[in-house]
Design a protein that fits this description.
The chain is an alpha/beta fold. Helix content is about 35%, strand content about 25%. The longest helix has about 35 residues, at about 1-35.
């Protein structure tokens, strides 16, 4: 009888403890429901911009993904001779960019991911005499190569800028046009970079992505280094970046010219 009585008391105590715990959980849930959503309670696509797959990914990518696209490996300064190759103009016709983008003397342009300065030099000629090209790169070695090119060619309106993976290092509302030639797909932090670039644009300033067309299998470039027009719009024309797609210019043999315009902040 005593054993049965002890068992009865133990069971009642256990049930009582469970009841108390249940009441606490219900009260906590009720309080959380009335509170604003915290960072932890937001959907994963808002809390975490990037996903990772370091085992099964393109060998030319870094295993980091943004909105379904794998980010490509950055070309090191050792690849500068490929940027400078003699056949590049024939293959890509990048000399058509200034006319296509309606460049004018006096404009302030940011050549982001400028590398050894091939594009910077082309742009600088068309914004002279009062305009400037800010040649931005994350590798000092590339900027050193650019400096040599400027001195050799007598170009004096290019300003080398050492940027970071998250910022080009430009002043707010200081740029008329920011251009990235075969660069955007290599940004390790594309969202953060586009925020900074948008902030650096003057009202109605433009962002230009020149990217190898993923839609065209005949373009002889590794897949992870190509970008579709739809993907570019998906990433760059996000409302919070205050950038709106304006036009896609299709005059180049291998690349899109995707133009976005800065809109008024909401």
């Amino acid at each position: 009888m005593r054993t049965a009585s002890k068992k009865f008391v133990s069971e009642n105590c256990f049930i009582g403890i469970l009841s108390c715990l249940l009441m606490v959980l219900l009260q906590t849930s009720s309080l959380q429901a009335d509170e604003p959503a915290s960072e932890k309670s937001k959907p994963a696509d808002e809390k975490d911009r990037y996903s990772y797959n370091l085992r099964d990914h393109d060998r030319n990518g870094i295993g980091k993904f943004y909105l379904g696209r794998e980010i490509a490996r950055v070309m090191g300064y050792q690849g500068a001779p490929w940027l400078e190759r003699r056949t590049r103009e024939q293959e890509e016709r990048l000399s058509l960019l200034p006319k296509a983008l309606k460049l004018k003397p006096g404009m302030a342009i940011a050549d982001i991911g400028a590398g050894s300065g091939v594009i910077s030099v082309i742009l600088a000629e068309h914004v002279s005499p009062d305009g400037k090209v800010y040649a931005i790169d994350v590798q000092q070695e590339m900027l050193d190569l650019l400096d040599k090119k400027m001195k050799k060619q007598g170009v004096d309106n290019i300003v080398p800028v050492l940027g970071t993976q998250k910022s080009p290092g430009l002043k707010p509302e200081s740029i008329d046009l920011a251009i990235m030639v075969d660069v955007y797909h290599e940004f390790e932090f594309p969202y953060e970079m586009m925020q900074e670039i948008s902030n650096a644009l003057k009202p109605k300033g433009r962002v230009v992505l020149v990217e190898y067309r993923k839609e065209d299998p005949a373009v002889p470039i590794k897949l992870v280094h190509k970008m579709s027009e739809a993907q570019a719009k998906k990433e760059v024309a996000r409302p919070e970046l205050n950038l709106k797609w304006k036009e896609t210019i299709g005059i180049l043999p291998r690349q899109h010219i995707l133009v976005f315009e800065k809109t008024a902040e909401e």
